[in-house]
Specification:
alpha/beta, three-stranded antiparallel beta sheet, 11 strands, 33% helix, 21% strand
């Protein structure tokens, strides 16, 4: 099984399908995976297979490593399009996340003021006001919503703790449009169960929730790298394009990544 475990706290830059030249910021340990989801499609593998021994980086460690990298990039290139909080799990789970966001914006403004700050989050921590306040400060607040079917979330996203879909959606509304919804569409099976969320029974309720939330943008995508569950299948270009066009028809910008 091929998986990706990212260095911590800084990695890249890498080329992102959706974001351009992306400098990665990993607020989780660099030797394993720590996440509030255990998604069957995660490029970092299943949580149980990659238990970290290292600790999460501190606020000071992140700031020092980020500034050193930005000084190097300013001297030698390339210039980043975006600073992306991602890596080996859920970035908002780091206890210093709000303070690290403030530090990152400060350093961004000093070295590459044209770059955006993005956070890729699975949305599990947005019930906390301090997390929402921090996410309101970033340019691209990218929050996962793979479906509005609780059974599908338990089967595919597999939350590691309590997960209240209704409260997650209500918390998304509190951003007043300052969020980007990110959704994985795929087909195939896992443990003998179908995981296709491209059909009408999933797409129609999801579209209704997207309309209620009113995000600034929607990003839909499908499997791009090897997954720990081996019976998963990419959604087709035609399926993604059809869903994208339905989002656009509601007046919400939407991109599809294949």
């Amino acid at each position: 099984m091929s998986t990706i475990i990212y260095p911590s706290p800084i990695f890249g830059p890498v080329h992102s399908r959706r974001l351009g030249v992306s400098l990665g910021i990993n607020l989780l340990p660099g030797d394993g995976k720590t996440c509030t989801f255990d998604c069957i499609y995660c490029e970092c593998g299943f949580n149980a297979d990659f238990r970290p021994k290292q600790k999460m980086p501190t606020r000071e460690e992140v700031a020092m490593a980020l500034e050193a990298k930005l000084q190097d990039m300013q001297k030698n290139g390339p210039a980043p399009d975006v600073f992306t909080f991602a890596g080996n799990g859920e970035p908002t789970a780091n206890p210093h996340f709000p303070e690290i966001i403030s530090d990152t914006i400060h350093l961004r403004n000093r070295y590459f003021p044209q770059a955006k700050v993005s956070v890729l989050s699975n949305s599990t921590m947005i019930l906390k006001p301090r997390i929402r306040e921090a996410l309101m400060k970033v340019d691209n607040n990218i929050l996962k919503l793979d479906t509005v079917a609780p059974d599908y979330i338990r089967k595919v996203d597999r939350p590691t703790g309590l997960y209240d879909l209704h409260r997650i959606i209500e918390s998304m509304k509190l951003f007043d449009g300052h969020l980007i919804i990110q959704t994985m569409f795929m087909k195939g099976s896992f443990n003998g169960e179908d995981v296709d969320n491209t059909g009408e029974e999933y797409v129609v309720p999801w579209l209704e929730a997207v309309k209620e939330i009113g995000p600034q943008q929607v990003m839909i995508y499908t499997i791009d790298r090897e997954t720990p569950a081996h019976q998963l299948i990419k959604a087709s270009h035609e399926e993604l394009d059809a869903i994208r066009d339905r989002v656009k028809a509601m007046g919400i910008p939407c991109s599809a990544s294949y």
